[in-house]
Amino acid sequence: MITSKKFLKQKEISHGFFNRNGGKSNGIYKSLNCGLGSKDLKTNVLKNLKIAKKKISRKSRNIFLLHQIHSNKIVFVDKNFKFKKKKIKADAIITDQKKLPIAVLTADCVPILLYDTKKKIIAAIHAGWKGAYKGIIKNVINFMLKKGCRKENIMVAIGPCIGRTYYNVKKDFKKKFLKKDKKNIIFFNTKKNVIYFDLANYVKSQLKLFKITKIDMKNIDTFSEKNNFFSARRSLRLKHDDYGRNISIIMIN
């Protein structure tokens, strides 16, 4: 489990970016696969989710997860929230509730955890390129500000994701981002006619637009096998028919 030094100083919260260590799954899902949407045995995934939850808290409610759809949709969980069995289709969770671990699943996309130290509001964002491009980060920050959060009190931890070295993209992808903003050119580089995209720093730039300065970026590449994270792109290269999911969790104690 990877943690943020900035977040560890905040005793009111617990958090963690989990890699694939310490779980019950086998084969390509070995071992802490937390993706119920994967083709892994459901019983193993449920055991893995319990393991992750215990690392965060032994006395909390079950982990609150979404049906992630690479969107800019968010959900706010307050005291009146009605929990249902069917997962909500969205890509970010915001809550002010204690003992409720909120989490996102990734396998190269960026997991982002946020905490407002004064309002005691937390958020978890799943930011793939689509969600980031569509404004998922902007939507979360704007919602938090409407709830009384202040940008100077918001802390952010950007978790492990695919690094610039391995994230090769097509020309149309680059054009799309440059059409939106020519300044996005800084997130692309070309080597031997192959275009690479810096997703983590693009995400960071979205936070900086709001003058948020308390950012801890882990700079751990999920594609690199030595880091021991699940990676959709690496699985594709290895011709696997599926892949496991890493979980990133935050909770107000």
Structure description:
It contains seven helices and twelve strands. The protein is of the alpha+beta class and about 250 residues long. The strands form three sheets. The chain has a six-stranded mixed sheet with strand order 2-3-6-5-7-11. Strands 1-12-4 form a three-stranded antiparallel sheet, covered by helices on one side. Strands 8-10-9 form a three-stranded antiparallel sheet. Strand 5 (about 110-115) and strand 6 form a beta hairpin. The mean pLDDT is about 95.
Explain the layout of strands and helices.
Blueprint (H helix, E strand, L loop, with lengths): L4 H4 L4 E5 L24 H15 L17 E4 L14 E4 L6 E5 L3 E7 L4 E7 L1 H6 L1 H11 L7 E5 L9 E2 L1 H10 L7 E4 L2 E4 L1 H10 L5 E4 L14 H6 L8 E7 L1
Parallel strand pairs: 2-3, 7-11
Antiparallel strand pairs: 1-12, 3-6, 4-12, 5-6, 5-7, 8-10, 9-10
Query: How many structural domains in the coordinates?
Result: 2
CATH topology (level 3) name of the largest domain: CNF1/YfiH-like putative cysteine hydrolases
* Averaged pLDDT: 97
Give the structural class.
alpha+beta
Please trace the helix and strand order, writing H or E for each element: HEHEEEEEHHEEHEEHEHE
The largest sheet, given as strand count, sense and whether it forms a barrel, is: 6 strands, mixed
